Amino acid sequence: MPGGRKGKCGPRSDGRRYFDAILWLARSGARWRDLPEDRFGPYQTVKRRYYRWIEAGVFDRIFEAVSGDPDMEWLAIDVTVVRA
């Protein structure tokens, strides 16, 4: 995870809370303004950090790391929902 800006070291805020906010948005399909402020902080902060990460290629690196060695041991397909 990227650290601070302008020579400062370390993260500016809780990275886990930020990533949970991104996952919440992806699951719910909500707009930035609908992000619960009591759980994730101001939506503007999350939105700004999201676009900084996009520009820096952080998400690309995360996806490459996750998809590099897929764990197929626990892969299962439920045929009750697969339509032929």
Describe this structure as you would to a colleague.
This protein is mainly alpha-helical. It has one domain (1-84). It contains 4 helices and no strands. It has helices at residues 15-28, 37-40, 43-56, 58-68. It is extended and about 45 Å long. The model has no long low-confidence stretch (mean pLDDT 82).
Annotate the secondary structure layout:
Elements: H1 15-28, H2 37-40, H3 43-56, H4 58-68
In short:
This protein has 84 residues and is mostly helical. The protein has helices spanning 15-28, 37-40, 43-56, 58-68.
Percent strand: under 5%
Could you say how many structural domains there are in total?
1
Q: Give the uncertain stretches in residue-range form.
A: none
The counted number of beta strands is: 0
- Terminal Cα separation, in Å? 42 Å
List the helices and strands in order: HHHH
Helix content: 40-55%
Mean pLDDT score: 82
- Characterize the main sheet: none
Question: What tags apply to this protein structure?
Answer:
84 residues
